[in-house]
Write a structure and sequence with these properties.
Blueprint lengths: L1 H20 L8 H4 L8 H34 L15 H29 L8 E8 L2 E6 L10 E4 L7 E5 L3 E8 L4 E5 L4 E5 L10 E5 L4 E7 L11 E7 L1 H12 L4 H7 L14 H15 L1
Parallel strand pairs: 1-5, 4-10
Antiparallel strand pairs: 1-2, 2-3, 5-8, 6-7, 6-9, 9-10
Helix pairs in contact: 1-3, 1-4, 3-4, 5-6
Cofactor: Cu cation
Catalytic activity: 4 Fe(II)-[cytochrome c] + O2 + 8 H(+)(in) = 4 Fe(III)-[cytochrome c] + 2 H2O + 4 H(+)(out)
Function: Subunits I and II form the functional core of the enzyme complex. Electrons originating in cytochrome c are transferred via heme a and Cu(A) to the binuclear center formed by heme a3 and Cu(B).
Length: about 300
């Protein structure tokens, strides 16, 4: 019983530490990201640390379990035909492996809620507001605080021939108000380490709004992460993160009547998307028809 109690205390000490690991600050190099991309927003760092802590906790539990299995295999291997001593139960150990899984889950749940609340937190007055409209099978990005040459807010809408480019400034709080015109879509930028389901009929309600602060300039692919129909896989867009001055110049050019391509070229940016290409619908339909004929 003393040996079992020591083992129970050792297991309790190891597993109890796991529950607190997800709250530790984690290094942000490629190894410790465990396959995740490097986030480019302030909010992404919180999510990356939660992921890293969760994986480390899972590895510790895994190594402990594997170690106990190996110990049991070696220490209790068959030595003779004599039946070994039978133990009906070990109350301290049973208490440990009943309570500790609950503590681990509670710890992970706690830190998940903390990070979720932090990521979904909204400021009273964001620096920029952008409306995102999803539809089968493309995107429209509207800058509601602007007025274009036609008297309507500046906007960019994608088509079968053109990938829409969402231009955003760095180091500013950006509020995205996301809406769907038809079915459930999902706004996903992998480098944000975040995606948000776009629920139709919510009229940009509280569940379809989030904020980020982009920290790095560059071009990043965005996708729909919810299966929404035939051309879901090609429902892509590009996030173009530029400096605050370039962003202001871009919007000014759009308000003067330039289209997205011309305004981007005006501020020294490529006018077309570089991270993804549009779907060739004619070729895809021809291939689909040929497959139907062959199956027929």
């Amino acid at each position: 019983m003393a040996r079992g109690s020591r083992l129970a205390r050792l297991a309790a000490l190891g597993l109890l530490g796991v529950a607190t690991l997800t709250g530790c600050a984690m290094p942000n190099n490629e190894f410790w990201r465990f396959g995740w991309p490097e986030g480019i927003t302030e909010q992404s760092q919180d999510m990356r640390e939660l992921w890293t802590g969760s994986v480390i906790a899972a590895l510790i539990v895994g190594f402990l379990v594997w170690g106990l299995i190996l110990y049991s295999v070696v220490a209790h291997r068959k030595r003779s035909d004599e039946l070994p001593k039978q133990t009906a139960y070990n109350l301290p150990l049973e208490i440990v492996y009943t309570i500790l899984p609950f503590l681990i889950i509670a710890g992970l749940f706690f830190y998940t809620v903390v990070v979720q609340n932090r990521v979904m937190e909204r400021s009273d007055e964001p620096d920029e507001t952008i409306a995102v409209n999803a539809f089968k099978w493309n995107w429209q990005f509207v800058y509601p605080e602007t007025t274009g040459a036609d008297g309507e807010p500046v906007n960019t809408v994608g088509s079968t021939e053109e990938i829409p480019i969402l231009v955003v400034p760095t180091e500013r709080t950006i509020r995205f108000e996301v809406a769907s015109a038809d079915v459930i879509h999902s706004f996903w930028v992998p480098e944000f380490l975040f995606k948000l389901d776009v629920i139709p009929g919510n009229e940009n309600g509280r569940d379809n709004v989030f904020e980020v602060t982009v920290q790095e300039e560059g071009a990043y692919v965005g996708r729909c992460a919810e299966l929404c129909g035939t051309y879901h896989a090609y429902m892509n867009f590009e996030v173009r993160a530029v400096s605050g001055d370039e962003y202001d110049a871009y919007l000014a050019a759009r308000e003067d009547g330039m289209d997205t391509y011309e305004a981007l070229e005006e501020i020294g940016q490529p006018g077309t998307a570089s991270t993804t290409t549009p779907l060739d619908l004619i070729e895809s339909k021809t291939t689909s028809e040929q497959q139907s004929d062959n199956n027929g």
